[in-house]
TrEMBL record:
<protein>
    <submittedName>
        <fullName>Meiosis expressed gene 1 protein homolog</fullName>
    </submittedName>
</protein>
<dbReference type="InterPro" id="IPR020186">
    <property type="entry name" value="Meiosis-expressed_gene_1"/>
</dbReference>
<comment type="similarity">
    <text>Belongs to the MEIG1 family.</text>
</comment>
<dbReference type="Pfam" id="PF15163">
    <property type="entry name" value="Meiosis_expr"/>
</dbReference>
<feature type="region of interest" description="Disordered">
    <location>
        <begin position="1"/>
        <end position="23"/>
    </location>
</feature>
Length: 93
């Protein structure tokens, strides 16, 4: 008998696109992907938390827990360099 394989509870995106210009949405996606997650939805499901540390004045992500348990700390200002914009993935659900 084959053992039943359970599917993970992580929501699967319907589509993906790559941006051409920087925006706050691109910055958000870049920070999550740098920490090893697809986006905020996957981060919340994997870490089982609703709390994400953000900078109060602009709302950018301040700190994330990587998949290996270490932390990523981000600056208040833009972190995504121009050459990384087209490598960032934006997912639609």
């Amino acid at each position: 008998m084959a053992a039943a394989v359970s599917m993970p509870s992580v929501s699967q995106p319907k589509s993906m696109k790559r941006p051409t210009h920087w925006s706050e949405e691109v910055e958000e996606a870049y920070r999550f992907q740098l920490a090893g997650y697809r986006d905020e939805i996957e981060y919340r499901e994997v870490q089982r938390t609703d709390h994400i540390d953000r900078w109060p004045h602009n709302g950018f992500v301040k700190k994330l827990v990587r998949r290996d348990g270490c932390f990523y700390y981000y600056n208040k200002t833009r972190e995504c360099p121009d050459k990384q914009i087209n490598k960032t993935k934006l997912y639609a659900y």
